């Protein structure tokens, strides 16, 4: 038994916000610096009151529509997010209520920018075990809500959005291999080191990052986990038709492609228009490449995530 992606959807809030728009909002930066260091030209930013479950709802409706299913058909809902609506209940339960599903298994996965890859690999294991048949897997984030807009080294990098896939059991492949890893020893290089206690915010509620340490770590593990996933499926990296790494920075994508000996035209790139949308970046890019018909039936596609924790992972599937 395999699990297969049968529908995808995505959603971006509001109009694109360009690098120059950020300058006009008073951030001490410029388009040249952002484009040359990151490849980012614009991003979408949610309103203050717009939540991850709101964005996830739009993406999920589109994915269900593409799969030809109703929300009531789902028996599993997993939301990958590091910007949940509440401490609890989970964003997955809030999304479930908005969709009008009653009774499906629903929970969040917290693996930061690897979250969607983690969630998809987990859903694959549920479906292959025979316990569940139709899953909705969502990556939804409002990182703009946890950015320190006075820290130009981080606030220009991120954007908001959501992507979703419907995964169903099938006797045809399907997801071919998955690999998930973490090493908490590196927790301090990318974190939001705050919490809530006694009715007050404790620690620091904003995203903090050692950019250069993250850069080096990401490039190494994305290449390694890609190779591991290929070996698990018994294929060479040259057999991959499309690679969708987490969209953090064009220089990370280029370095990963070089290490995996893949031409850049096999990569799906959205970081220029979306910025880094954390757990939403991979399903947003996947939905774009499926809807513009770049991806054809029978092709092999690899998804890769890397993010805070540190966490990293990959999912290889046949479309
Ligand atoms: O999901 C994972 C998320 N994280 C990432 O993807 C981050 C990976 N890291 C990176 O992409 C890069 O490290 C950054 C793009 C974040 C930074 O690039 P860098 O080449 O490592 O720059 P830097 O931090 O060493 O800063 C270089 C200079 C500094 O000025 P001085 O000290 O050399 O005068 C910064 O103050 O760039 C300055 N700078 C900026 N200038 C204009 C930092 N941010 C900005 C900015 N605009 N937004």
UniProtKB/TrEMBL annotation:
Question: Pfam families in the record, alphabetically?
Answer: ACP_syn_III, ACP_syn_III_C
Kindly give the InterPro entries that the UniProt entry links to this protein: ACP_syn_III_C, ACP_syn_III_N, FabH, Thiolase-like
Q: In which pathway does it act?
A: Lipid metabolism; fatty acid biosynthesis
GO cellular component assignments: cytoplasm
* Chief place where the protein resides: cytoplasm
Catalysis: reaction(s):
malonyl-[ACP] + acetyl-CoA + H(+) = 3-oxobutanoyl-[ACP] + CO2 + CoA
Q: Which GO terms describe its biological process?
A: fatty acid biosynthetic process; secondary metabolite biosynthetic process
* Active site per database record: 113, 246, 276
The segment(s) forming the Beta-ketoacyl-[acyl-carrier-protein] synthase III C-terminal domain are 230-318
Places the protein is found: Cytoplasm
Q: What GO terms are given for molecular function?
A: 3-oxoacyl-[acyl-carrier-protein] synthase activity; beta-ketoacyl-acyl-carrier-protein synthase III activity
UniProt keyword annotations, A-Z: Acyltransferase, Cytoplasm, Fatty acid biosynthesis, Fatty acid metabolism, Lipid biosynthesis, Lipid metabolism, Multifunctional enzyme, Transferase
Superkingdom to which the source organism belongs:
Bacteria
Q: Does the keyword Membrane apply?
A: no
Q: Record's domain comment? A: The last Arg residue of the ACP-binding site is essential for the weak association between ACP/AcpP and FabH.
Q: Subunit structure of this entry?
A: Homodimer.
Name by which UniProt lists this protein: Beta-ketoacyl-[acyl-carrier-protein] synthase III
The species this protein was found in: Candidatus Accumulibacter phosphatis
Gene this chain is encoded by: fabH
